[in-house]
Amino acid sequence: MPTVGWIREGDLDAFYEGTERTPDPSPQREPNFSCPFCGSIFPNQSEFHDHVYAKHRVERPFIMLRGKEPSAHAVVRSPLAASEIALANTSHAKVLLDGAGPQKVSIDKLGELISETSQAELTLELVNTTEKKATPVVTQYGFSFRVAQKADLRRVEQAFSEILVSDTITRNSIGSFLADKRTQGPGKEYASGLADYCLGILIKERPEGENLTTPFSRHRELYGRALDVLKDFPRPLAHLITCIIRFSLNNFENGGRRTGYLELDLATELLSNPTSDSLQLPLENTTRRPVCPIDHGTGRMLELANHLASQSRWSPILDDECRALAHSDLLDATDHQKAFAIWAASAWRLGSTDSALEPLTQIAEIYPFSRWASKYLEQATT
Ligand SMILES: [Zn+2]
């Protein structure tokens, strides 16, 4: 104890001083790492990390529906078979069905529950508790089940055919389709997809007398919304319309899937792979029944592709026809690109490299046509 000036050390100070002892520094102990989960001891940090990673890793649980993990808020529109549902890293689940619950459900039971649900809101929590001493890892999903029976979908198609196929599309006819009693109930979601498609046609075509205030560009949004809903319905009509929409939006990712609508299959094949050997020309004089409306711009492109595919040689008159269409003020941007692409692909197929040059330069940088156009352009100019 230090003393300051005249303050002298007392007895008590001396006593305290005697009790303050720093322990003798013993030989340094080796550091070790003990596992908080199982108590094993490791001599160094890297071995400890390896152990925890190999033995006590708790993975995120997830569900797969038809081979894909659904988004956090998914809509289920077609029935799921138990074999189409897979779970990983899941110990058990907690479900909240239409607000009732939560209820703890085993993995087997969960598959059953999902495949049996047709109309409900389901909140699903998958829990991974494999590591007893760690906080469980949880993944949450919300599902809206809007599964309709075949009979419901057929009724919607009947109303569609009567109201929107055999008559002109107007805002009124779309309204009466949506108000028809056949489009209510479980089939409502399907009906809304079909209605969005028709509204998209209306906005793209802008017929006089409809006094539309919606901007022209919104047709793409409506087509996109219809595509998003209709792609989930396992019906031939839904499949056909999604293919028409993809064609009209210049989306050729699903190129090879046939629809049975021969003009569309030919044009899609031509634009996906211009040198394809399997272009099938539609037969003349077959009686066919209209099943869905198609916007005039898209229809015009189908006609052009089929008209050019039936030619046996190329000539400047065909260039002229294509040029007029590709620059028409009445077509939208995607149809302009498509006209150039059909022109380029058809001239190229018939061996007229010179005629293909003009349209190729227009689309060489435009996806998805750039996939073949840039290659052809390079071949033609070297
Ligand atoms: Zn351990």
Task: Give a quick rundown of the structure.
With 382 residues, the chain is α+β, with helices and mostly antiparallel strands. The chain has four domains: 31-58, Double Stranded RNA Binding Domain (2-Layer Sandwich); 62-146; 150-249; 263-283 and 295-381, no CATH class. The protein has helices at residues 11-19, 45-55, 107-116, 150-165, 171-179, 188-205, 218-230, 236-248, 262-272, 296-309, 316-326, 333-349, 353-363, 370-381; strands spanning 33-34, 41-42, 62-65, 73-76, 85-88, 92-97, 100-105, 119-128, 137-146.
Largest beta sheet, briefly? 5 strands, mixed
Helix-strand string: HEEHEEEEEHEEHHHHHHHHHHH
Determine the number of helices (DSSP H or I, runs of at least 4 residues): 14
Task: List the ions, cofactors and other small molecules found in this model.
Answer: zinc ion
Please report the distance between the alpha carbons of the first and last residues: 97 Å
Q: Strand order, biggest sheet?
A: 4-9-8-6-7
Shape: elongated
Number of strands: 9
Strand content: 5-15%
Rg, Å, rounded: 34 Å
Low-confidence stretches: none
Provide the residue-averaged pLDDT: 89
Percent helix, as a range, is: 40-55%
Strand-pairing-aware structural class: alpha+beta
- Number of domains as seen in the coordinates: 4
